[in-house]
Design brief:
The chain is of the alpha+beta class. It has one domain. The chain has 4 helices and 9 strands; from the N terminus they run H-H-E-E-H-H-E-E-E-E-E-E-E. A 9-stranded antiparallel beta sheet has the order 2-1-9-8-7-6-5-4-3. The relative contact order is 0.19. Keywords: Signal.
C-alpha cells in the first residue's frame, strides 16, 4: 500500500513545476497561501490524530496517524492560491452572499486554477469552507483535482482545519486514466 501512497503523491505533485512565481505580488484575492501556511504551523505544533482515507482506482487504504507532513499534505491548497504574478486580474470575482467569495477563471484563459470558493465565518471572517478546481491539459496528460477543506473554531477560539479532501484523476496519453482520492478528518 505504500506504493499506492507514493503514486498518489506523485500524481498530485506531477504538475507543480509549471506554477508561476509569486514574488512581489499585490494581493487582489483572498490570501489562501497565508491561511494554509498558518494552518500548517498550527497543525505541526498540535500534531492531531487524523483519520485518513486514500484510494487509487479501486485500491483503498484507511489509517489513523498523527505523523503527517502537513506541508506536503496541503500543498495543493497552497497551489490554489490566486495571488501569483501570472494570475493577476484574470479571475472574475463574485459574492453570492456577504460571506462567500467565488473566483472564476475568465473565458479564454488557461491557468490550472479554474475556480476557487471561500466561505468565511460571518463573525471572525475566518474561512470555514474552501473549494477549488484545478485542471490541466496538454499533449502528454490531462488532470483534474477537486479540493475541499472545512474549518471549525476549537473551544480555545482557534480556527483549524477539520476535514480536507482531494478527488481527481490523471490521464497520461500512454496509460489508462487513474483516479485518486485523499480524505482526512482531524480529531
Amino acid at each position: 500500500m505504500k506504493h499506492v501512497l507514493l503514486f498518489i503523491l506523485s500524481l498530485l505533485l506531477f504538475t507543480n513545476c509549471t506554477n508561476p512565481t509569486d514574488t512581489a505580488v499585490v494581493q487582489n484575492y483572498f490570501d489562501l497561501k497565508g491561511f494554509i501556511e498558518n494552518q500548517i504551523a498550527e497543525l505541526n505544533k498540535r500534531k492531531p490524530l487524523v483519520n485518513k482515507e486514500m484510494a487509487l482506482d479501486d485500491k483503498q487504504e484507511h489509517k489513523q496517524t498523527n505523523e503527517i507532513d502537513w506541508r506536503q499534505e496541503l500543498e495543493l491548497f497552497i497551489q490554489a492560491d490566486l495571488n501569483k504574478q501570472a494570475y493577476q486580474l484574470i479571475y472574475t470575482i463574485s459574492q453570492p452572499s456577504p460571506s462567500t467569495y467565488l473566483y472564476t477563471l475568465k473565458s479564454g484563459e488557461t491557468l490550472p486554477v479554474k475556480s476557487l470558493k471561500i466561505v468565511l465565518d460571518e463573525v471572525s471572517k475566518q474561512p470555514k469552507l474552501v473549494e477549488a478546481l484545478l485542471q490541466e491539459e496538454n499533449r502528454l496528460y490531462d488532470s483534474e483535482k477537486k479540493l475541499q477543506l472545512t474549518c471549525t473554531m476549537r473551544p480555545e477560539g482557534v480556527w483549524l482545519i477539520k476535514t480536507y479532501e482531494i478527488n481527481g484523476f490523471q490521464h497520461l496519453t500512454i496509460t489508462d486514466k487513474k483516479t485518486f482520492s485523499v480524505k482526512g478528518t482531524i480529531n
